[in-house]
Amino acid sequence: MSEDAPAPLLESGDSDGWEHYFTLFADEPALHDEFRRIAVFDFVTNNTDRKSGHVLRGSDGRIWAIDHGLCFSAAFKLRTVIWDFAGEPISDALLDDVGNLIDEVPAEVAELLTEREVRALQGRARYLFAAREFPIDETGRRFPWPLV
Predict the structure, then answer these.
(1) Residue 147 maps to a domain
(2) Has residue 12 got a pLDDT over 90?
(3) Strands 63-65 and 55-57
(4) Which region, left, alpha or beta, applies to residue 108 given φ > 0 means left and ψ of -120 to 50 means alpha?
(5) 111-139 per-position pLDDT tens digit
(6) pLDDT for the residue 1
(7) pLDDT over 90 for what percent of the chain?
(8) More confident residue, 4 or 108
(9) Which of 16, 70, 118, 120 has its CA 20 to 30 A from that of 126?
(10) Is residue 98 part of a domain?
(11) 135 prior amide bond cis, ω within 30
């Protein structure tokens, strides 16, 4: 790494390679609110590849949602392993965050997307804000493969 490059936020070896969303969900109920936040993020960004191994706990205890950019498609393609909260109400705090996207997507994000992708993101935010609950996968097929 060059001297000019910023230090990575999560270093290799900073997390336990055996922990992932499924193990953390089962073993650490105190983390469920963090997972709810990721579930909302995945829906609004239309994440197409949230595998269990893409949810890590750093050595500092923080939860990291690792992505590689399969998000923001205008066509609805959601694929995530985080369906455990389906049908539950979304907290007011998360709804406030979602509501902020309905009228205006931050310029730093919007400039990286097409106009159609911005409208789709706002449509997903509008849907979640109106529904006020975590979506349910009616198809049973909105999971990535492999799961971990």
Answers:
(1) no
(2) no
(3) antiparallel
(4) alpha
(5) 999 999 999 999 999 999 999 999 999 99
(6) 46
(7) 74
(8) 108
(9) 70
(10) yes
(11) no
Tell whether 11 is covered by a domain: no
Q: What is the C-alpha to C-alpha distance for residues 22 and 82, in angstroms, rounded to an integer?
A: 9
What domain count does the chain have?
Answer: 1
Only one residue has tokens 């109400």, namely 89
20 contacts 53 by C-beta, under 8 angstroms: yes
- Whether the predicted model's global pTM rises above the 0.90 cut: no
DSSP the chain: --TTSPPPSS-TTSB-TT--HHHHHHH-GGGHHHHHHHHHHHHHHT-S-B-GGGEEEBTTS-EEE---S----SS----BS--TTTTSBPPHHHHHHHHHHHH---HHHHTTS-HHHHHHHHHHHHHHHHH-B----SSS----SS--
Structural domain span for residue 43: 21-131
- Token reading at 78: 């959601």
Q: Are 35 and 77 in contact (CB under 8 A)?
A: no
Q: Determine what percent of the chain is predicted with pLDDT higher than 70.
A: 89
Query: Residue type at 23?
Result: T
- Quick one: average pLDDT of 88-97? 97
Q: Measure the CA–CA gap between 39 and 33, rounded to whole angstroms.
A: 10
Give residue 145's pLDDT.
Answer: 83
